[in-house]
Specification:
Blueprint (H helix, E strand, L loop, with lengths): L2 H18 L14 H21 L4 H10 L2 H4 L12 H12 L11 H11 L7 H4 L7 E4 L5 E5 L16 H11 L11 H13 L10 H11 L5 H17 L2 H11 L9 H9 L8 H8 L14 H17 L5 H8 L17 H14 L11 E4 L3 H21 L10 E2 L1 H10 L27 H20 L6 H8 L11 E6 L6 E5 L4 E5 L11 E7 L8 E5 L5 E8 L5 E5 L24 H10 L7 E4 L25 E4 H6 L3 H6 L9 H14 L21 H12 L3 E2 L5 E6 L2 E5 L6 E2 L5 H17 L13 E6 L5 E7 L3 E8 L16 H18 L18 E6 L12 E8 L2 E2 L9 H6 L2 H4 L41 H4 L11 E2 L7 E2 L19
Parallel strand pairs: 1-3, 7-9
Antiparallel strand pairs: 1-2, 3-15, 4-8, 5-6, 5-8, 6-7, 8-9, 10-11, 10-20, 12-13, 14-17, 15-16, 18-19, 19-20, 21-22, 22-23, 24-25
């Protein structure tokens, strides 16, 4: 028996059962005992189908007769491939046997072979009941902190937002029914008339084959039996569809269908499609929009309005006509809708280009706190803490900062374009002929062919002609010119680095080693300085660029290449712990490792404030003198080696105040605080610092060795940020979080309860406030002086780990904490450092400064750092000191904040350094250089140099406000310049300061010399 005939009879056996005995469909027959039953089922089915032929007004006998006379007419070369090889004669004999009731001796039919194929096709048949409770994978909608839609989380082939059928307008439901299955409400899962029309149509017509599937069958195909183009799948599909009609209502089936179908643009289901194509919910769709979407299931790619707008319009017109025939719309609505524009949102508007690290972290929090194993298993509404504008700005600042570092150090390497669109350009150029142009060079519109105009003769005529030409030029300028092929190809390109914020550009002219020419997404062209790609660009390469003059008509651009160095940035709200922005690396497609939460790195000097906090809490004051000189600490418990740290520059500055030791990040000062500054003995001091670190939750456990105080133990960025937020809050540490709530089907699964920050009890508010003012000095004139113009609002600390492996800045305003890290991952076993001199102040501070300004531009208030809290104020007294020596002065100086103990301002200036020792020191030594790094305002006498012993009182007008505001000089318009160079002292000294070479951030941990 012909194999095609076997398959056709097996399919006919299925169709006969579901149409004549839907409640008793057998899925297995005995090849011997059930032969007669199979023949009877086929005859019953044929009789049933003949009635359907009659209803469709198809003369089956005449069709068979025609086929016998000219078989090529129905099964020739133009017929679908599935019918090639079909013997029309055998088909005719079979028709006579089963539909005419003739007993033919030469029948090719073998019931045993048909039963064998049928039985095999139905092995492991899926259950229809499974579809009744089927929960479709869906996209969870993620809202930002303002409650606006920000992102979606979904699995592959699961970008879907399911909606109940009751929320889908009747007009939209009927649009799909009219387009796909006009007898949906009356059939029992299989539409015999539709099958007949499809079968006859496929026999008689070439081209795209018709399927004849009902909406119920499409649900089964999409969600149960799969979409294989085989007879076996068709057999399974019909049986499951028939059974589904018995256990699920029509409304339930239509709900599954509308939520399950793919409609292009990566959208599954009607709700996601409505949002993707029109930026609105399904309940807001117009007639024309509903008709466009209803036409898509037939072929989402073939009828794509993005790729083939003409096909989409034709398909929409067909659906509108069907809606009119079914009485869904009126003639007037049809006329109006037929001429309406497509009204699509741009493809780019539907794409997200930021926040991938944040969303990834959010899904982890949903799993941990809300118990939601997967946000993609169903549709949820997830409310987050994100500030969307700040998130994009944070990523942009980090990406630009990393690229700037590699360009400046000569480490930038061009490794080829992100993609090349030459093939796409060629296809577009071949598919669309060049439009006819008008005399003005503007493409002609329909019916806009130029007409010959006689030349003007008189002066008046010439004047009128000139005015007409001017008007024509003005009108032509408003005509939208057709996009070039490269521009259209760029619009549909899928960039590899989809979250990198430098614009894409297409190389139009390589420049042969010189300046190249590139095309931008908006159609403009720009001259490109190729940099490291000089001589390596190819036509239609797609590269990343930075525009020098973005708003110019002919902008200039610089090439941007993906850096090898990595980085991370975090913005945290101090009072609540809400994560406002998070960049876990340069680009999520490059590496999904979140360096904010999933890695630990040495924090370097950003950990030093912990030791200073312990010292302040022990009673030391910011003017306490400490020797910045060599020190050796004995082994802990007599085991191991002693420890002799060194400053970054290898030297020391002699006696200096506690404040200046932190502002200029002196390693030796930090180490000496362990010798009596916190506890009597160094090991006990270290233990107190460790205890403070554990209570602040910077670490889960503390490595008890001396280099810990200089940041040798690796830390998570998010934990470090929480500590700095605690400093801003005078000791109240917030718990960082990103997830506010999770909802599903209108029910709240999780809501984060408001929690007050946890107080760090190992240090009091006074110590925290004093530390805050000292950290403000870091941004005012210390190692983060690049932020000096913002120092009234921000305090912080730079950090550089051993051998410049890591560069950090951690800082805070009243409202937020910003932490930035730059470094190489070094996961491949090769150790790359940032290079000599590449410190936190040099690399991380500029990035943090950009993020700070972006925060202010995105709703974060800009306020001066707050004065002491009402709880701390009674235990603080302000007094003027000479900043270098720490001596009290009258009528001027620097306003320092002192702890009050037992009703008096505690005097600890000489607690660690005897007064006689200080007095015996040579004046030239005490006025020596601080040895600050190049990021600090290092001058011959230090920032406060030239004060000759520091005893001269400064004028009241030059008193420094504790919040960084310079009163008289700034009010008079004089610019304070804390950078080295020949200038007058900012503190009223008329002596010129000699210029000297600048050095780098003193954040180096150990004594050996850093190497490049």
């Amino acid at each position: 028996m012909n194999i095609i005939l076997i398959k056709l009879f097996a399919t006919a056996l299925t169709l006969s059962q579901v149409t004549t005995r839907p409640d008793a469909v057998k899925t297995q027959f005995d090849p011997v005992a059930d032969k007669a039953q199979v023949v009877q089922i086929l005859r019953d089915g044929c009789a049933h189908m003949r009635k359907a032929f009659d209803i469709e007004d198809i003369n089956l006998d005449e069709l068979i007769s025609t086929a016998m006379e000219d078989p090529s007419a129905v099964a020739g070369a133009s017929a679908p491939k599935i019918l090639h090889g079909l013997d029309i004669g055998e088909l005719n004999v079979s028709y006579r046997q089963f539909c005419k009731g003739e007993n033919l001796k030469d029948s090719p039919f073998d019931a045993g072979e048909v039963i064998a194929f049928y039985n095999k096709a139905l092995i492991d048949l899926p259950s229809a009941e499974a579809l009744k409770e089927r929960k479709l994978p869906g996209a969870s909608l993620i809202l930002d902190g303002a409650g606006k839609r920000y992102a979606e989380a979904f699995e592959a082939n699961g970008r879907r937002l399911s909606v109940p059928i009751g929320e889908v307008p009747v007009m939209v439901q009927k649009a799909f029914v009219a387009a796909e299955d006009k007898r949906f409400e009356t059939h029992k899962g299989i539409d015999e008339r539709g099958v007949i029309r499809a079968f006859i149509g496929n026999l008689a017509s070439p081209g795209r084959p018709a399927g004849g599937s009902t909406i119920t069958q499409q649900v089964v195909k999409n969600l149960s039996v799969g979409d294989d183009v085989t007879y076996e799948r068709k057999i399974r599909e019909m049986i499951v569809a028939s059974r589904l009609e018995h256990i699920l209502s029509k409304a339930g089936i239509l709900e599954l269908y509308l939520n399950g179908i793919y409609l292009g643009r990566g959208a599954y289901g009607i709700e996601m499609a409505a949002r993707s194509y029109f930026g609105k919910s399904v309940g807001q769709l117009s007639v024309t929009e509903a008709a466009l979407l209803a036409g898509m299931p037939k072929g989402p790619n073939f009828y794509s309005p993005d790729k083939y707008p003409d096909r989409a319009r034709e398909r929409r017109a067909y659906v509108l006509a069907r809606m009119k025939e079914e009485g869904v719309i009126t003639e007037a609505q049809l006329a109006e809708a037929a001429n309406a524009p497509l009204g699509l949102t741009s493809v780019e508007a539907a794409r997200r280009d930021s926040g991938f690290y944040f969303v990834d972290h959010l899904t982890r929090e949903a799993r941990t706190f809300a118990g939601v194993d997967s946000l993609t298993a169903a549709s949820h509404v997830v409310r987050s803490t994100l500030n969307a504008g700040l998130q994009t700005a944070t990523e942009t600042a980090l990406q630009e900062g990393l690229a700037t570092y590699e360009r400046a150090t000569g480490r930038a390497r061009y490794e080829g374009p992100e993609l090349n669109i030459a093939d796409a350009v060629r296809k577009l150029e071949g598919a669309a002929p060049a439009p006819e142009a008008s005399p003005l060079g503007v493409p002609l519109l329909v019916g806009d062919a130029p007409k010959p105009t006689p030349a003007p003769k008189t002066k008046a005529e010439r004047k009128v002609a000139a005015a007409a030409e001017k008007a024509a030029e003005k009108a032509a300028s408003k005509v939208e010119r057709p996009k070039a092929a490269w521009q259209r190809a760029l619009e549909t390109a899928r960039p590899v680095l989809y979250d990198v914020h430098w614009p894409l550009a297409v190389v139009l002219d390589t420049g042969r080693g010189g300046t190249a020419k590139v095309g931008l997404a908006d159609g403009r062209t720009a001259s490109l300085e190729p940099g490291p790609a000089r001589g390596k660009l190819q036509p239609y390469d797609v590269v990343r660029v930075k525009l020098r003059d973005p708003n110019g008509k002919a902008p200039r651009a610089d090439l941007r290449v993906r850096p090898g160095v990595q980085g991370a940035a975090l913005v945290l709200e101090n009072r609540t712990g809400r994560i406002l922005a998070m960049a876990g690396g340069f680009s999520y497609p490059v590496s999904q490792l979140n360096r904010v939460t999933q890695t630990v790195r040495q924090p370097g000097s950003t950990l030093k404030p912990l030791t200073y906090l312990a010292a302040l809490n022990a009673g030391l004051q910011p003017n306490t003198l400490v020797m910045d000189s060599a020190v050796t600490l004995p082994p802990i418990g007599g085991v191991g080696d002693s420890w002799s740290p060194k400053n970054y520059d290898g030297g020391g500055a002699g006696a200096t105040t506690l404040r200046r030791g932190l502002e200029f990040s002196k390693n030796l000062v930090t180490a000496r605080l362990l010798q009596g500054g916190i506890a009597d003995k160094a090991p006990a001091s270290l233990q107190k610092v460790c205890d403070l670190a554990l209570e602040a939750q910077i670490y889960a456990e503390c490595e008890r060795y001396y280099p810990f105080v200089l940041g040798a133990q690796p830390v998570r960025m998010v934990d470090l940020a929480a500590f700095y937020a605690a400093v801003a809050n005078e000791g109240a540490r917030p718990a960082p979080y990103a997830l506010e709530s999770v909802e599903r089907d209108g029910k709240t699964l999780y809501t984060r309860e408001a929690r007050a920050p946890a107080r760090i009890g190992s240090a009091d508010r006074v110590a925290f406030y004093q530390l805050k003012t000292m950290l403000q000095g870091v941004t005012n004139h210390g190692t983060a002086a690049a932020l000096s113009r913002f120092s009234s609002a921000i305090a912080g600390k730079t950090g550089t780990s051993e051998n410049e492996n890591d560069a950090w800045f951690a800082g805070f305003t009243n409202e937020i904490t910003i932490v930035v890290w730059v470094g190489y991952d070094n996961a491949d076993g090769t150790r790359r450092t940032l290079g000599r001199g590449q410190t936190g102040g040099h690399l991380a501070v500029p990035i943090a400064g950009t993020i700070l300004q972006a925060a202010w531009a995105n709703g974060v208030p800009r306020t001066p750092l707050a004065p002491p809290s009402p709880e701390a104020r009674p235990f603080l007294a302000d007094a003027s000191i000479e900043p270098r020596s720490g001596e009290r002065v009258e009528g001027g100086g620097f306003r320092e904040h002192f702890r009050i103990k037992d009703g008096r301002m505690a005097d600890t200036q000489y607690q660690l350094l005897p007064r006689e020792t200080r007095t015996a020191m040579r004046p030239d030594a005490e006025d020596g250089d601080l040895g600050a790094d190049e990021d600090a305002p290092d001058t011959a006498g230090g920032l406060f140099g030239g004060l000759s012993g520091g005893r001269r009182a400064l004028p009241e007008s030059d008193l420094l406000d504790p919040y960084g505001e310079r009163r008289s000089r700034r009010a008079q318009g004089e610019t304070y310049q804390p950078w080295p160079g020949t200038q007058r002292s900012p503190f009223g000294d008329d002596e010129e300061i000699r210029p000297r070479p600048r050095r780098r951030d003193p954040d180096y941990l150990f004594g050996d010399e850093p190497r490049f």
